[in-house]
Amino acid sequence: MHSKEIKITKVNPSDWESYKKIRLDALKNAPEVYSSKYSEAELYDQQYWRTLLSDINNIYYFASIKDEIIGVARIALNDGKEARDTAVLCGLYVNSKYRKQGVAKSLALTRLDECFKYKEILKVRTYIKIHNHIAITLYRSLEFNQIGTKEDEIVFEKLIR
Ligand SMILES: CC(C)(COP(=O)(O)OP(=O)(O)OC[C@H]1O[C@@H](n2cnc3c(N)ncnc32)[C@H](O)[C@@H]1OP(=O)(O)O)[C@@H](O)C(=O)NCCC(=O)NCCS
């Protein structure tokens, strides 16, 4: 797969069924890396997913090839837990059939570019489970620095301006 074939697009509330499908895949196939639970998420109704995707403080992205959605990721802006100058990258998942081909990196770079558009955002953070060596390698390769730990997660940060 050539990286030019990977398309990164924002998710709209009307895409809720596609989002639900890949999010449930993520929770089912990589339960150890997320705090949400598949058994709870599979019960949520359409209104839940539409509300989630309508929240102005969160931006969701799909990665796709042709018409197949193969990855997903989110930026949390102004989430109430971080300082207002800090955005958080989260919810990253790539379908196992399409891994090691630069999809996660494309999603990460698109999200960093988006964060840079917000003048008040100075830092981008991500929280990665201590044992998630692949994600740790990914964010290190994007020059995120380990600034500490929180429970079972490493806190990575990158200054963007
Ligand atoms: C982590 C994950 C998103 C990576 O997706 P991916 O599309 O395969 O990653 P990429 O191909 O873009 O790789 C980007 C970088 O990650 C690292 N990486 C990816 N796969 C790796 C592997 N198997 N071993 C070591 N490093 C790896 C490398 O640094 C790679 O850069 P390089 O190819 O220039 O060396 C994917 O494995 C996944 O969905 N895992 C389950 C969910 C998860 O862990 N999410 C992240 C935390 S929320």
What secondary-structure arrangement, pairings included, does this model have?
Layout: E1 6-10, H1 16-29, H2 38-41, H3 46-54, E2 58-65, E3 68-77, E4 86-94, H4 103-116, E5 123-129, H5 133-141, E6 145-150, E7 153-159
Parallel strand pairs: 4-5
Antiparallel strand pairs: 1-2, 2-3, 3-4, 5-7, 6-7
Helix pairs in contact: 1-3
Bound molecules: coenzyme A.
Which spans of ≥5 residues are poorly predicted at pLDDT below 50?
Answer: none
Instruction: Give the distinct bound molecules.
Output: coenzyme A
- The overall pLDDT average reads 96
Helix content: 25-40%
Strand content: 25-35%
Shape, please?
A: globular
Largest beta-sheet details: 7 strands, mixed
Q: Give the strand tally.
A: 7
How many helices? The count is 5
Given helix and strand content, the structural type is alpha+beta
Total tally of structural domains: 1
